[in-house]
Amino acid sequence: MTKPSMIRNAALAAEGHQKIEWVIRHMPLLRQMEADFIKTRPLEGIRLTMSIHLEAKTAYLAKVLASAGAQVAVTGSNPLSTQDAIAAALADDGLAVYAWHQATPKEYTEHLLAALDIGPQLIIDDGGDLVHLLHQERRDLLKNLYGGAEETTTGVLRLRARAAQNKLEFPMMAVNDAFCKHLFDNRYGTGQSVWDAINRTTNLIVAGKTVVVAGYGWCGRGVALRSQGLGAQVVVCEVDPVKALEAAMDGYQVMTMDEAASLGDVFITVTGCRQVIRGRHCASMKDGALLANAGHFDVEIDIPELQALAVEEKEVRANIRGYRLSDGRWINLLAEGRLVNLGAGDGHPAEIMDMSFAIQVLAVLHMLQNRETLKPGVHAIPREIDDRVANMKLAAMGLSIDTLTPEQQAYLSGWESHE
Question: Could you tell me the CATH superfamily of domain 10-181+348-396?
Fold first, then answer.
């Protein structure tokens, strides 16, 4: 059963349409898919629930899936990243939308559950909240569920942890692990969008500052690269010795957070873990230090410990919460410690999300086509999907590449002779 949309302000639809129309111009892969789907309708009659950061690029993904014939219910995956104008525009287009900006925890859960009320056969998740609710509160929906796709690093980590304990009861495609996702979205998308958000929110210079990046996965690599490009001195904090060594050989300083705390001007957490920056770290930071989180959940910076240190807290600028310590130093937290590139910005560039969402669409189709054989668990994106998206992107950029001749293929696959 589809409930009426739950949005903040339907009058914002025109603004939302304008934003969506802008990104559509810069998403040629999804445009091509949409043109094909209008004719072929590969998702005809399928019910699909999406929980993903609700902004313009995501809205176009939802519209493309609807053009394929799916009945789509859309909700957010983070209360701070939902844009009310986008929600209004999607509802105006006839999609079922359950989300608004700055939803309370109770409202956020209500929105997720409302989106699940359509009884989805397929899901697209971002962070794992839909998967959690399907296993805990809406187990009645499992019987009709084929499976789904997970967008982000944190969500895949949660899926693998659940699967390791044999507690994942349906198949999920690990979209985050696709080459055309993590190599480009996580690295270049995160690197740019994090700094877009920080610069927009603070209006401060980066050059000459020390930026501490916690985590050197693909997202952390991107943040460190863009920090360096903006003229910052970059410190990387890691728990993985191989990644720490890579960061050192990439030219960054590597040290513990305890060592870095007094050196940094800007701290950016990108780990997927919790309590990466603790109260003791905040206690030794410079006056005016900026704290930003680029991980999915608002647990990487220990906000309760920061609050316990503070003798005063207030909004010092839009989307910046200042915490004054007893000696007069201020520590500044951006976007409530939530995902800064979406909580204080518009997220990744459209050209990047065009690739990631193309993989999402193809992963959903793969799940549907292979629903009889895919077992519960976390499944890799087939290489042919990556190659298809990469070839589409190259073509959209007007680029051509070489192909192997039959003789070269035989040479590479053989072992008898290398003459």
Answer: Adenosylhomocysteinase-like (3.40.50.1480)
Which segments are annotated as binding site? 126, 151-154, 181, 185-186, 215-222, 238, 294-296, 341, 348
> What kind and span of H or E run contains 316?
strand 312-317
Residue with tokens 């051509």: 400
* Average confidence score pLDDT of the chain: 96
Tens-digit pLDDT profile for residues 197-211: 999 999 999 999 999
Looking at domain 191-343, its CATH class is alpha beta
* Dihedral pair phi/psi, residue 346, rounded to 5°: -105, 10
Question: Are the beta carbons of 334 and 323 closer than 8 angstroms?
Answer: no
Sheet with 122-125, strands from edge to edge, namely: 96-98, 71-75, 47-51, 122-125, 147-150, 171-174, 377-379
Centroid of chain to Cα 142 = 25
pLDDT digits (tens, 9 = 90+) for 76-134: 998 889 999 999 999 999 999 999 999 999 999 999 999 999 999 999 999 999 999 99
Residues at the annotated binding site for NAD(+)? 152-154, 186, 215-222, 238, 294-296, 341, 348
By the 8 A CB rule, do 148 and 123 touch?
yes
- Phi then psi for 111, rounded to 5 degrees? -65, -45
Measured CA to CA, the distance from residue 95 to residue 15 in angstroms comes to 17
pTM, rounded to two decimals: 0.91
Instruction: Give CA separation, 335 vs 36, 201, 304, 362, in Å.
Output: 39, 9, 15, 33
Domain boundaries, given as residue ranges, for the chain: 10-181+348-396, 191-343
CA distance 193 to 196: 5
Which pLDDT belongs to residue 156?
Answer: 93
Query: Which residue positions form the known binding site for substrate?
Result: 126, 151, 181, 185
Q: At what angle do helices 350-369 and 56-67 cross, to 10 degrees?
A: 30
Count CA atoms within 13 Å of residue 136 on its CB side. 10
- For residue 283, list its beta bridge partners: none
Confirm if 210 and 264 have CB atoms less than 8 A apart: yes
What single-letter amino acid sits at 205?
Answer: I
Q: What is the pLDDT of residues 294-330, one digit of tens each?
A: 998 899 999 999 999 999 999 999 999 999 999 999 9
Q: First CA to last CA across the chain, in angstroms?
A: 67
Q: Is 46 helix (H, G, I), strand (E, B) or coil?
A: coil
The number of residues making up the chain comes to 419
